[in-house]
Known about the structure:
Elements: H1 2-15, H2 52-55, H3 59-71, H4 73-94, E1 101-110, E2 126-141, H5 146-212, H6 218-252, H7 283-286, H8 288-309, E3 314-325, E4 337-346, H9 354-420, H10 426-460
Antiparallel strand pairs: 1-2, 2-3, 3-4
Amino acid sequence: MKSHFSIVAMLAVFLAGCAAGPNYRRPAVSPPPAFRGQLTPPDGASLADAKWFEVFKDEQLQGLIRTALEHNYDMREAVARVEAAQAGLGITRSNQYPTVAAGADITAVRSARNGSFVVPAGFQQDRTFGTVSAALLSYEVDIWGRLRRETEAARADLLATEEGRRVVSMTLVSDVATSYFNLLELDLELEIARRTLATRQDSLRVIQTRQSRGLASLLDVRQAEQLVQVAAEAVPIAEQRIEQTENQIRLLVGDYPGPVERNRGLTDQQLPPQVPAGLPSSLLERRPDIGAAEQNLIAANATIGVAKAAYFPQISLTGLFGFQSSQLSSLFTGPAKVWQFTPQVTQPIFTGGRLKSNVRLAGAQQQIALVQYERSIRTAFREVADALVDYQKVREIRGAQETLVATLQDRSRLAYRRYQGGVDTLLDALDADRDLFDAELRLAQVKRDELVSVVQLYRALGGGWQQ
């Protein structure tokens, strides 16, 4: 029997050659020499190489990101999906190896002397049967590589799931940082609204005093009251948005709605001194969504081999060795040995075109995966280009807006002074006050946009998932 198993082992080694279907080759990709909007010549340095806690210096924001990476529901689901994919790979890969099982049973029988079946003379009324067996071999010889292709596809699915987890991590870091900066901008809006409300209330009292002395009209009072009411309305609107943003952040960190602590204002946030984009070719390796798309392509390519292998015979080998005896006392003696070796070949003959359709389906799915892979690359380069131009132009807009606010502050001060001196009308002063309020709110939004542009560039370059 030993020679039989040796022959089987040698047969499995020599016949298990190349697998059916095409071997995977990464599609040729020619990235541009530089990102559009890249101001300096590309080198190896990239903002995405920095850890997220090196990019975002606010300690409170760092704590929120750490909590989110541990407790966010999307993150926990992504981790569970990776574990499920690991188990799936183990199940699929186990089909390539022989299955060994053992079993035993003991049967005791007592026959009745007066029953329907009379025990003949010379036979014992009580008998015990015993069987001990080991299925030493239950194995499919993977000559055409079907099982290997299935394992290759399962391994690619696992890697795609791991890349998907990194995508969730990258997105989560970006979402928490963006929401936190939005919250700080709303804090600044609330501060501006309250300060403007107090200033307008003071101006209203001055105008009411002038009206009581006959130096201002009732129309002047109503116009001043209108500005007070506009500023008063802006306060609860900002407070409403603040609480809603806090609730959003609390959900991102996997907690119930509630307040969010912050210890630095919007204007106190530190930006990285440099935001280099790095080499365009490194984007293909750094972006996890591109990696996930490529692993999906690898899995689809392996599925073609699985479909093509179905054309060929399926060879299965089963073997059994054990002992069987009608007397338990002689179960392990020489004459009680039993063994069995059964090779089996299954060859599809007529399937009504099912096998051919399966190959066509696998090929079409591989083409879909290829298109998605190529699209993910182009999308990544577009996101980087958009983030670069956003970062550069927002900085220019912020400088211009700061100059505008300074100009409007001076205009408002002069307009009210001229009105109180009787040189100019109240309308000019009210217009200057209104323009200043809008410009200050816009400046707060632009400062937020500048911080968010760094977040979006960091994410577009593939940063944020390194922990």
